[in-house]
Amino acid sequence: MIQSPASAAPHADSPVLQVKPLGFPWETLDPFLFCVYHDDAYPAANAQMGPAASLAGRDIGQDFSRKDGWSMYHGSAVPGFPAHPHRGFETVTIVRKGLIDHADSLGAMARFGQGDVQWLTAGQGVVHSEMFPLLDEKGPNPLELFQIWLNLPARSKMAAPNFTMFWSQAIPRLTALDADGRATEVAVIAGRLDAPHAGVTEPLPPPPDSWAARPDADVAIWTICMAPGARWTLPAASGKDTRRQLYFFKGASVAVAGQAVSRASAIELRANAAVELVNGLDEAEFLLLQGRPIGEPVAQYGPFVMNTQAEIRQTLADYQRTQFGGWPWQGSAPVHGREPARFARHPGGAEERPAESAAASDSATA
To answer: Which domain holds residue 225?
Structure first.
């Protein structure tokens, strides 16, 4: 991923408000708290579902080195993030390549990837682990994902935790063709996309206590992939106070409302304006995050996000006392075997799997 200084300052009448280089993590706007992009070129797997490579020179347990194109993160044998707590917000995890093994203090577990999305409302508190099992012992094991933290308003911070899976086949996807037949594909994880000549994508239902469940919150989470030379107009948002950030994370160059952007960038846009995107010579990819701000104070201490420091102190006391229900799994970094099939087992034992032969819902061509 290229990182370098931002493009020239936008014109005063441009819908482009600001362009900044991408860092780690990516800067976000209220109602979002955090966005991180992992793109790891893991090698072949060993018998323990970790990398068949030396771990020498890595700070095991805290490895964000990207040595040889990958990191172990907080994992010691399998890369990933062993058991850790959250309170007061939601995680939206979009896995584009590879697999994640999830386990949590609610007793839920899942293996998901290949375009699947997990939406976890931490609410009053949950402990979960997110491990990245490597299953191919003969070839590489690429992993690519976004994790997005979406804040909860004060009235919902102590809501009951909720675990939701959006399987890849159920995620609305729209393919728009420009006048020259060049394609732009949009995957709609949250929000509604109205596209001329292509109908309307019906939004996926976000968890009930999410800020995204409020129609007036105008939350949207979309990924956008443009073929070389493609043109596509990003439609205006519906909310008057909506804020919008477009992350250009793959590709050589793109014009955004006529402004050239030639580096990986976070582009803040006027949400009430339609914006034409014109791609350069390579395939380009974007993540769009938008929503009406919650507009409340944010007090954060690591994985806890409340409104006041007093609430943070109470959260620390609650976690020390209850461990948010405890940890029902053996070890802090469980993985779910060598079978690659994706599944989710919910609290109480109900199990679901993706409909493997199902076509993507609400797909259309413009």
So the answer is: 16-22+172-295
